[in-house]
Write a structure and sequence with these properties.
Two copies of one chain form a homodimer. Chain A is α+β, with helices and mostly antiparallel strands and 348 residues long. Helix content of chain A is 38%, strand content 22%. Chain A folds into two domains: 127 residues, Creatinase/prolidase N-terminal domain (Creatine Amidinohydrolase, Chain A, domain 1, 3-Layer(aba) Sandwich); 213 residues, Creatinase/methionine aminopeptidase superfamily (Creatine Amidinohydrolase, Alpha-Beta Complex), CATH 3.90.230. A six-stranded mixed beta sheet of chain A has the order 4-3-2-1-5-6.
Chain lengths: 348, 348
């Protein structure tokens, strides 16, 4: 089972990080991080220097036995019971435990129970930012489903159709192509005319008009891995300003992608987009892009305050957009796979 | 605008809670809580005893001017800039600020900036648990869309169809009926045969077999308000055990609903379900139900450790289920509206 050997490599890297961060253990409770390290998104996991324990409810032990009882599976599987985790940690020689960015109420409860030092760390998220060959194949499958959805969008978005009816048809296509989920958390974005100026506008009952711009932002999920892409479609003949800006934003997206290489500072890439827009007389209202993987938004953050540096194995979006309240919006977005000496566009 | 007067009432209640909790202000950053108090899910809001401020990005001030510039709108609208919120709080007479359950990294950053006492509170979530007449109408619209989706499920789920193809068609129906989002975060649940034993199983490429049970869990969203319902469908003639248990779980659901009244302890309702199952020889693996509103899961929690008491105006699910690994699963779920002297089933 390829997944089992993947999990082995991930644990190896997590332990290197434990050493670098002078931590004795890493407690995993976030479902996406559980999926990454244990193969399923349930339970609580403790990764130690020489050991790893996974606690799950009885039901899941039986349901996921194909993974959990695999000979190469490194986690010692236990049934979750009240107090078992704190007891293990408190009775062990563990001194410093790395924890994820959980809610303050959960953190305070944990701090009350575990009599060891709790250190907030980003080890899982940092490791997840660098994709393996195995992960890249899954992301490509997911990106292909997004492309099929976008093809359907070009067929469906016509004068007179209601936004929500177009969305229904496009999401249907994405699901029937095999996506495990509809696009993103709350469905795909499709916004025509003035609605397009709202970065997060969802489709409404409005009919699409001739001469309008329609922002279509969609994605898929395959074996846990998301995809994300945006096109702005022209319905009929555009006004001169709209036509010019449409070309400007798409060109800017591609120019930005041209500047991507190993070692590029994410914040500098963002500043390039921001400056290019300012020169043209527009303000840039959101970030330039984000990593994509087991979450739709993950490391790297390609925004103004980011301290991230682009590295080989990262998969992220580049998505400049211009928004004119009361008039229209334009955004183009692609997923970029950065490798040592080259980049690959996964959604073109 | 009915929403503006709703917001006024919500602010009034929030201020009563501030007084009861000896807080001078409430900082709102969670998108659902922003939606509840400000009418839109963006920005940062500070509700004080005699004042309220909303900071948003410039873009949203223009996009949402219909709400924000309404004469009856109580929030003083300001453009968000780095440092504006902490400056206002630090320079004011505010001593104790209520904050939501944010992540520890966000909380620590805030605590470093704001030189006043920060107190974790659940004021927004507690207020949101009691629905107004205005909200109930929206929830009913949402529940009706879920019912349309379930009707489609009964038409679609047949021997030989792939799970994911059935899901594509049912979600299409829900969207075309006007749901703002596909069901829930990651799509609806549809699990046939042995997959049904996985409480959170999503549809796969498996074909539905004759004689199997299919768990269908779906919902919709209308003007921000979710709905949630589950049926277990029998495809063809069931085995004796399956048929008996199907009837048992549906009856148990209805018996549990019969026990709902103002003042019922949520944990006692849960214990009733648990005991009924144990008598039959089965273990109950999840909670009995949850509130539904601007989140799919909110207060009340109807589970073993809940301290919630059922109150008039609450809308929540009752959803007992039995899961037999390797064999099948059965769950029935309805949304209940509890009012002073009566209950109303929103999804029957």
């Amino acid at each position: 089972m390829a997944l089992i050997s993947e999990i082995g490599k991930r644990l190896l890297k997590a332990r290197e990080e434990l050493e670098d961060n002078k931590l004795d253990a890493l407690l995993i409770t976030n479902p996406k991080n559980l999926l990454y390290f244990t193969g399923k998104d349930t339970g609580r996991a403790l990764i130690m220097r020489n050991d790893a324990v996974l606690w799950v409810k009885e039901l899941y032990r039986d349901l996921y036995s194909e993974i959990y009882s695999n000979a190469g599976y490194e986690f010692d599987l236990r049934i979750y019971e009240e107090g078992t985790i704190k007891n293990l940690i408190n009775k062990s020689k563990i001194k410093r435990v790395g924890v994820e960015n959980m809610g303050i109420s959960e953190f305070n409860r944990l701090a009350g129970e575990v009599k060891k030092e709790l250190v907030h760390c980003k080890i899982p998220e940092t490791l997840r930012a660098i994709k393996s060959g195995y992960e890249i194949e899954l992301i490509k499958r997911s990106a292909n489903m997004a492309k099929m959805g976008m093809k359907k969008a070009y067929e469906t978005v016509k004068e007179g159709i209601k936004e929500l009816d177009a969305v229904s048809k496009i999401e249907y296509e994405i699901r029937i192509c095999g996506s495990e989920t509809p696009p993103f958390g709350e469905g795909m974005l499709l916004a025509s005319g003035a609605s397009g100026a709202d970065v997060h506008a969802h489709a409404g009952t409005k009919r699409i008009c001739l001469g309008s711009l329609v922002v279509v932002d969609l994605g898929a999920r395959y074996q846990g891995y998301y995809s994300d892409m945006t096109r702005t479609l022209a319905v009929g003949k555009l006004g001169k300003k709209e036509g010019e800006l449409l070309e400007f934003v798409e060109n800017l997206e591609l120019e930005t992608i041209d500047r991507v290489e190993v070692g590029t500072k994410a914040s500098e890439l963002h500043r390039f987009v921001e400056k290019s827009m300012e020169k043209k007389g527009y303000k840039f209202y959101h970030s330039t892009g984000h990593g994509v993987g087991l979450n739709v938004h993950e490391i790297p953050n390609i925004g103004p305050k980011s301290e991230d540096v682009l590295k080989g194995g990262m998969v992220f979006t580049i998505e400049p957009g211009i928004y004119i309240p009361g008039k229209f919006g334009i955004r183009f977005e692609d997923m970029v796979l950065l490798q040592k000496n080259r980049i690959e566009l996964l959604t073109r």
